[in-house]
User: What shape does this take?
Amino acid sequence: MFHFARRTRGFTPLEMSNGDCKRKSLTGFTLIELMLVVIIIGVLVSMVVPRLAGRTKEAKIAAAKADIEANIALALDLYEVDGGTYPTTEQGLESLRSKPTGSGAPEDWKGPYLKKKPMDPWGNSYKYACPGVHNPHDYDLSSYGPDGVESEDDIVNWEK
Assistant: This one.
């Protein structure tokens, strides 16, 4: 039997007629208390969800910037320390996962420098060029951003 009412004192008439007058501790929540909790949770959700709804795009842009400015950059710097040069454009970022072959392959490759193929948050490959057009003594690393085409919203490792 379910009890919605919380009772801490007194006995029901049935308990009194049976002679069972021991103090029972019946606990439960009233329907009003349950409805109040549901309403409070609904109000809190309605306040929080709109603040988080537009953050997905910003989070993906921040993740791409972190990859370009830190994660992939660190792997490329480690590759350069071990081999003396950055991977060529032809070797690409794949050379951070497996030892490149052919001319220009480093003799002292100590990788892998990355565990998996670097993909931007939108599922596209990062664009890599060495020597770079924008960084002629270094490399260019970029993502085409949310739209997937070269435009103003690209995330890059050079000054725009």
